[in-house]
């Protein structure tokens, strides 16, 4: 036994994670169902550090120092269960098995409980940053027992990305499914963020008449300010890219159907179960689904819009180009709207993490979540440090919108934000994320909501009862009779 850590499953993610451990000075045991992958890794990257390749699972387990820490990086679902079953037979009580795949947190809870029975620490961990992150430093969100983190934490913190203040982007999120839950919400926020950026681009293009290259320039400018983030940065890169075949902007030759692998859907499904409002994430998931409904889009393509004769897609003749001074002013207005809507999406994400943590008794530190998303992950952004600070100062903060700094910013952005929503509607440009975020803001702000009417309707047709705003108790009105009020 000589390896401090083992990785089984050496496809893109596992291979890069193994290399990352080795480059950081750890001796890494390697294993993969198909042995060729193990051999390839050693042939290509063996010089990067100390690897102990194993042909069989028992050989792999025997190569590990105790307590053994082994990371499973295989396809999520059935393959993960099969591999866990295999290794559960080979390890000993006190050993730590890590699932670094994209598992559903309920699966992680189930697996953790089953392995705990056998004295094995099971750690379901979210890993974000894709292929490159796995190699150069991902954001790592482990769940599991505190004891398992004692053994595993130092290794994970060594290979994780570093935040601008030097802190590692890995931290113990909580027991059993906490890590995979946090990763799921991370992906939900990622969906919302991408949708908002896409809407901002669409408005700049269709309302202001900017070209993709000009919009890239605008995004580069935004990336210098409070919107500074990985997603804004890559958006500028994508918008600058020209298709080699046609010479056209790359964004114009990609079919406008956004696909999804499922973590956004999981987030929304879970939010529905928990009763947490995450409309920004839901809008983003539905926007992707709607984009792929070619049948609906074809059937509705001839519906009239606000500029009859040509308010169609990019470059259509209906798109007028605003005068230069107006263009700059509009870009500034869209920046305010994008930023405000982004804050709203993150507020919804944190609300969901808090709700999940309460429901499952995880005790997730909301500040720590922001801290480990500051680097390495897809939604890394400068403003996450302010979210970290907001929850560090007030762990009981009911919503990010109650933080004085964020509240002040939203208040200052709201004029521009409302104007953008109105402009989008006037121009017939769909902006469900930006406008939905404003509705969430106004919905929380409102002194009275029409929910009173909804509840009254429920009492009318279903005798569902209601509470009164002016006194305690539960009431019902005899709608079909004398309309007298009773206390059932
Ligand atoms: P894949 O998800 O494509 O899985 C391929 C690996 O699973 C190979 O090592 C393969 O072995 C192994 N495997 C399969 Br498939 N069935 C198996 C079985 N029954 N028994 C043993 N091994 C089996 O790899 P990936 O893209 O590197 O992703 C790994 C995990 O990380 C996934 O859960 C993924 O969702 C997650 N993840 C991926 C990313 C990303 O950017 N790709 C990011 C974050 C998380 P073989 O070589 O013998 O076929």
From TrEMBL:
Work out whether the entry's keyword set contains Glycoprotein.
no
Mind listing the GO molecular function terms for this protein?
Answer: phosphogluconate dehydrogenase (decarboxylating) activity
Q: Which UniProt keywords apply?
A: Gluconate utilization, NADP, Oxidoreductase, Pentose shunt
Enumerate the InterPro entries for this protein. Answer: 6-PGluconate_DH-like_C_sf, 6PGD_dom2, 6PGDH_C, 6PGDH_Gnd/GntZ, 6PGDH_NADP-bd, 6PGdom_BS, NAD(P)-bd_dom_sf, Pgluconate_DH
**Which intervals of the chain are annotated as region Disordered?**
296-319
SUPFAM superfamilies associated with the record: 6-phosphogluconate dehydrogenase C-terminal domain-like, NAD(P)-binding Rossmann-fold domains
Q: Which Gene3D superfamilies match?
A: 6-Phosphogluconate Dehydrogenase, domain 3 (1.20.5.320), N-(1-d-carboxylethyl)-l-norvaline Dehydrogenase, domain 2 (1.10.1040.10), NAD(P)-binding Rossmann-like Domain (3.40.50.720)
- PROSITE patterns (alphabetical): 6PGD
Q: Which reaction does it catalyse?
A: 6-phospho-D-gluconate + NADP(+) = D-ribulose 5-phosphate + CO2 + NADPH
| Top-level EC class | oxidoreductase
Q: Which Pfam families match?
A: 6PGD (PF00393), NAD_binding_2 (PF03446)
User: EC number(s)?
Assistant: 1.1.1.44
**Role of this protein:** Catalyzes the oxidative decarboxylation of 6-phosphogluconate to ribulose 5-phosphate and CO(2), with concomitant reduction of NADP to NADPH.
On assembly, the entry states: Homodimer.
Q: What is this protein called?
A: 6-phosphogluconate dehydrogenase, decarboxylating
Gene for this protein? gndA
